[in-house]
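Teaching assistant's notes for section 4

Start the section by putting this record on the projector. Ask students to predict, before seeing the second block, whether Relaxase/mobilization nuclease domain-containing protein will look compact or extended. Collect guesses on the board.
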Amino acid sequence: MVAVIKTAAGVTNAIHYNENKLKQGTALLIHSSNFAKTTEHLGFTDKLRTLEKLMALNERTKLNGVHISLNFDPSEKILVPQLQKIADSYMQQIGFGNQPYLVYQHHDAGHPHIHIVTTNIQWDGTRIKMQNIGRNQSEKARLQIERDFGLVKAQSKQKQAEMIKPVNVQKVQYGKSDTRRAITSVLDAVLPVYKYASLPELNAVLKLYNIKADRGAEHSRLFDNRGLLYRVLTNKGEYAGIPIKASQIYNKPTLDYLEHRFVENQQSKQGHQVRVKNAIDLYFKTNRTHSMDDLMQTLQKGGIHIILRQNESGMIYGITYVDHHTKCVFNGSDLGKAYSAKQVQERCDPFAHLHSEDAPQLKHANEKINPNATAIQGEIKEQAVAISLKEITNALLTIEQELGLAAELKSEEARRKKKKLRHS
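Reveal the predicted structure now:
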């Protein structure tokens, strides 16, 4: 079993998220605890108001919403009564046994899992401390529950990562499905799982699914009002169809929500840079010839996507790495100078600085690999070498001419001295 605990400002988004799954038929409300009504008689207002009433007792605590997922091995077939007992046991062991909480069973992934929504504000207005709760109370509860219920153990980090993979969503194809529903499916899979610390980093992941989060141009009304749109992209990266406002999406992935995630993710992705750096270094050490296309293909086989940022003329000015194993997103500068866009290009092509105007040849590097790319780069290198040899030849001729002139001057000076000595 793997437990994932998330905190947020309020419970509205978490409840909307799970209730939307109910509407879609991919989830069931299987249990509740410490509510005035039984589970089957709870309406949406009952769920929300009970939790909000508690949160109102402590206005100083900003992160008062708690959203937990308990994930089980794909091989396990756990019946609802057992899931109810597991949820109660877990909540009791982490100190939330007296809190009102809702338990939803989800059916939208390759492994069994439940979601629990609650608050850390207690009936007396005090808060349950969340610091290190995942590493301490939750980890102890996980081990105990695995023993008590005979569950498959998830000791290794690799095993835990496999068990909490997001649903295998497909690229959004404009016109083939409802735009809002398609965007929501991707956001549900990406936002809670990947560790992105800025909008460009998030967009590096979303681009893989033909989606972009857009704040609009700086100083525009959308930008100044802190609005956010989600747009569908074509395979060429162009906008398609009408954008959807973040506020119109069920789980409300607004700028405020994302900025809160940015802060959390900045800390949680620390220490995961090494895997990406090692993969890049290994490529350059074990391959005689290098190219950006080949580097991208090689890393992708290891679960790392390279996203190139290019201007309108195709010039590469930035690089982002998306590691699907650790779910971390890094800008090249996060990893160090050697992994920046400029340095990686030069490591792939030592002559890159001599023909930067030819960078448009890499314009479609994020799409299907151009079979002629290697030949094109070879021609560019030959041209660059020819230019370099010409410059060297000219320089040598200039030096030779200067040396010849210097020798003539030296001979002339010697003749003058010799003549002067004879006359004296």
